Amino acid sequence: MTEQREGRTRTASKTTASRRTTARGPQEAARRAGDSLTELIGHPLEGVSAVCRTEQGWRVHVDVMEVPRIPDTTSLLATYEVEIDQDGELMQYRRVRRYRRGWADD
After folding, report:
1. d(Cα 42, Cα 90) in Å, to the nearest integer?
2. CA dihedral 79, 80, 86, 92 (to 10 degrees)
3. CA atoms of 85 and 92, how far apart (whole Å)
4. Domain boundaries, the chain
5. Cα dist from 34 to 50, 56, 68, 79, 94, whole Å
6. In the sheet where 76-85 sits, what is the strand order?
7. What are phi and psi of 17, to 5 degrees?
8. What is the topology classification, in CATH, of domain 22-100?
9. For residue 106, how many other CB atoms are within 10 A of its CB?
10. Model pLDDT for residues 43-97, shown as the tens digit of each residue
């Protein structure tokens, strides 16, 4: 019985350790930020428009589809600023811009 418990503890430790791997580069940071945001707000991911390393981790601008419309050029998209820590965990997010697909910046 003691041996079984030790085996389970080791497996759990490996799983926990793999979840805590750091977001080593901009690609990993962008993926984690996009996954975290879409899980929270429920809007589909359109893309990532910026990634910046910070002292605490990463700041990522994630574009999502907020209101799908027909024709697609009238759909409303939004850009969210997402901050994740060194481990890739979401620290905070906020919407910084809302716009129609295909519209140019001012």
Report:
1. 15
2. 170
3. 10
4. 22-100
5. 12, 18, 19, 11, 13
6. 45-53, 57-67, 76-85, 90-100
7. -65, -40
8. Nuclear Transport Factor 2; Chain: A, (3.10.450)
9. 3
10. 999 999 999 999 999 999 999 999 999 999 999 999 999 999 999 999 999 999 9
